[in-house]
Amino acid sequence: MYRKLIVLASCAAVIIIMTNPAGSIQVAGYGSGYSLHSYDQTATETAVNQEVLPTIIHTPITEASTSEDFHITAAIQNLGLGVPVAHYRFGDAKKYSKNVMKPIRPDVYDFKILAAALNDKKIEYYIEVVDGSRSLATFGTADHPIVAVLKSPGHNMFYLTLILSFIGLFFVSKVIAGSRKRVSAKDSMEKRSAAGPSKSRKLARIH
Predict the structure, then answer these.
(1) Which domain holds residue 17?
(2) Residue 113 domain-assigned?
(3) The CATH number of the domain where 67 resides is what?
(4) Are 62 and 146 in the same domain?
(5) In this predicted structure, what is the pLDDT of residue 195?
(6) Confidence of residue 19 (pLDDT cuts 50, 70, 90)
(7) SS3 of the chain
(8) 82 pLDDT exceeds 70?
């Protein structure tokens, strides 16, 4: 009897199989340094390591007109429980304003700034996906935002008017030059026709 107890006590690994209420099987062994606590910790770390983070796909806006609404649009893959947020500021402002981007198509999100608010020379922005206080993904950052230059329609009209003026002057100069050539040719013909009869009279006198 005692020999049997000694043999059982000297076993290095006694496997205890426990079934939790959810039905999953967890294994712990005495004498092996393995415990239920270490199993739970390893499982949690594995779940975190396997988390798929969102991907933001966006075409940066570098120039925009103040006469049109400013749209920040991005395709976001693997959003999960994340929330897409647009951060933006005007001119040399220090602080960013932020708004949640709205879905406009599957996996595509947009935030619109009305044209009436575009009264500065530039707008800086970046896109972020957040889960509570945790940042999951960004396109641009607060320190390195995307910079879009804002131009008024009058700015473009000035250059268009200037170009049209040069084109108009070019054609006017061509027309004036052509008119001068025609006048010069006409004068030459008149001089020749006026000189023609006098030469004929001189020849008649000689004969």
Answers:
(1) 2-49
(2) yes
(3) 2.60.40.10
(4) yes
(5) 62
(6) very low
(7) CHHHHHHHHCCCCEEEEEECCCCCEEEEEECCCCCHHHHHHHHHHHHHHCCCCCEEECCCCCEEECCCCEEEEEEEECCCCCEEEEEEEECCCCCCEEEECEEEECCEEEEEECHHHCCCCEEEEEEEEEECCEEEEEECCCCCCEEEEEECHHHHHHHHHHHHHHHHHHHHHHHHHHHHHHHHHHHHHHHHHHHHHHHHHHHHHHC
(8) yes
